[in-house]
Specification:
The protein is α/β, with parallel strands linked by helices. The protein is 40% helix and 17% strand. Helix 9 packs antiparallel against helix 10. The longest helix has 32 residues. The radius of gyration is 26 Å and the shape is elongated.
């Protein structure tokens, strides 16, 4: 679940992905795996999972050997809040960068009204209630965020850094008093700057660190204080700082409240956007209730309102689909100028821009992504397999959907989780391997038209599967090409995938919506 406003992306406590309300059973190696993939701080994962007022609500696999509930292979310490009344929600197997915090609060997972009925649209009352609740939670969130930003380094991090840089040793006590007066709201950068100036003695520097336990929750910072400054802190002091992470400060309380508000905003906006995307899938069906213009307008409204980089990427692609390239590119320019990127986030943004302009080039030249030549597929594959950024993953998903070139990730837990393989399956891709279906959506009967290059009797099949991958029907093909009638009358409403398969090789793939 992605959280709310993140104009300043350097505070990993408040922004990034949260794992909430997941049920893990019988995983063979790990339930939650967190890696920086070789990237630097921050990683995109929120370092406060859940908060002091609301547990994460995840359950864990309790069986097997050589497995872990949570593997956190980043330099950031993960504060993980769980319901201490539910044994299955307590992580037992985890590494040193995870700090489990048990709270005795009943389970209160964020509401996802359509969760048990994934294809039910929201009612007008539910939509109104969600809108009203979002307004209320957003108001609380923005009020907390304003106070928080005013308190952080006195509201002016750069000014404080300059003050530290200009201090001399005879001003050590003045500097100490100044730093402590702004505690516990100092940032890790202010602490690092004070340590580099060699003004404060180790005991005084320790005192400052202990007063700002939230800012010191970073193993890279501890290594810096122990090994990289002129007068390094001894091991026992480093251990004291680590121990202070378990204490609670005003800042901790405020960050928990901000985290809880932004998490609830994300849950509400997820419900609303999921409803709008489903209405778009059902466009033309009587269930949709909104016409395409209303649906698009509401999606644009919500993606503008959700102040995350991911939402802006989605919004840029909506403008792109509307052929409004000026609006899309203007939005990307605003994101680049108004969001404060880390080096990794800037690289991710640059990759998304590359993805966007690749799409634009292909679209303006009349190329269909579903009918690329071999050389064009190679161009997209070279881009998709060169990293794991937002734009490259989108390109990877396109190749998987249209051509069966699907990335497989293998996390090697035996080597500290630092190895990550991205390998593409490479079935034979031919322009004569194709399949289509009409009508779509289908109410009663669909007609598939197919062509398969390397037809093998009793091995070439048409497969229809639900969104979980469960095979609904397998139809053996009698010829290299032809047409097949398929009855959908006994199939539940929903989204299904279809594809051609020859032995173990998968070829063309498509999506089918069933609405009775």
């Amino acid at each position: 679940m992605a959280s709310g406003i993140n104009r300043d992306n350097n505070n990993a406590s408040l922004y990034g992905l949260q794992y909430l309300c997941n049920s893990n059973t019988f995983n063979s190696t790990c339930d939650f795996y967190i890696t920086s993939r070789g990237l630097s701080y921050p990683t995109g994962i929120r370092t406060i999972q859940g908060n002091a007022l609301l547990p994460t609500g995840n359950s864990f696999s309790q069986i097997g050997q050589n497995y872990s509930h949570i593997n956190n292979y980043t330099s950031l310490v993960l504060s993980y809040y769980y319901n201490s009344n539910q044994a299955i929600q307590q992580p037992v197997y985890f590494n040193a960068s995870v700090n489990p915090i048990g709270i005795s609060i009943s389970e209160q997972c964020p509401s996802h009204i359509t969760g048990s009925e994934p294809f039910r649209l929201l009612t007008a009352t539910e939509t109104t209630n969600f809108n009203n609740e979002y307004d209320s939670v957003e108001n609380t969130y923005l009020s907390l965020l304003y106070v928080y930003n005013q308190l952080m380094d006195g509201g002016n991090t750069n000014a404080l850094l300059n003050q530290i840089q200009q201090s001399w040793s005879n001003n050590a006590m003045i500097l100490r008093n100044e730093l402590l007066s702004r505690s516990p709201y100092l940032t890790r950068f202010a602490i690092m700057e004070a340590a580099m100036q060699n003004i404060l003695s180790p005991p005084v520097l320790l005192e400052v660190c202990m007063a700002n336990s939230d800012a010191t929750r970073d193993e890279d910072l501890l290594k810096f204080l122990q090994y990289e400054i002129v007068n390094p802190l001894p091991t026992y002091m480093i251990e004291m700082i680590r121990a202070s992470w378990e204490s609670s400060t005003t800042r901790t309380t405020m960050e928990n409240a901000i985290s809880g508000s932004s998490g609830r905003m994300a849950a509400i906006s997820d419900n609303i956007l999921n409803d709008l995307y489903l209405r778009e899938e059902l466009q033309g069906d009587t269930l949709a209730t909104l016409d395409s213009c209303e649906t698009i307008a509401l999606k644009i409204y919500w993606l503008n309102r959700i102040q995350t980089i991911a939402a802006k990427y989605d919004l840029a692609l909506i403008y792109f689909d509307l052929n409004n390239y000026e609006a899309a590119e203007s939005l990307l320019n605003v994101v680049h100028s108004e969001f404060k990127f880390s080096d990794d986030q800037l690289a991710d943004f640059n990759d998304f821009e590359t993805y966007y302009y690749l799409l634009k080039h292909y679209k303006l030249n009349g190329y269909e992504l579903s009918s690329l030549s071999h050389s064009q597929i190679d161009e997209w594959s070279n881009f998709a397999t060169s990293g794991a950024s937002n734009g490259r993953v989108r390109a990877s998903n396109m190749l998987c959907f249209y051509y069966g070139l699907c990335a497989e990730e293998d996390y090697d837990l035996q080597s500290n989780g630092n190895r990550l393989y991205n390998e593409f399956k490479s079935p034979i891709v031919s322009e004569v391997n194709n399949i289509s279906v009409t009508p779509n959506p289908v109410a009663s009967e669909a007609k598939f038209g197919y062509s398969i290059a390397s037809f093998i009797q009793n091995k070439s099949v048409l497969i229809i599967a639900d969104i979980t991958g469960k095979i609904i029907e397998k139809i053996y093909l009698e010829n290299q090409e032809g047409k097949i009638k398929w009855s959908a009358e006994n199939v539940k409403n929903g989204i299904y995938f279809y594809y051609l398969q020859n032995g173990d090789e998968k070829y063309a793939k498509g999506k089918l919506i069933v609405t009775h």
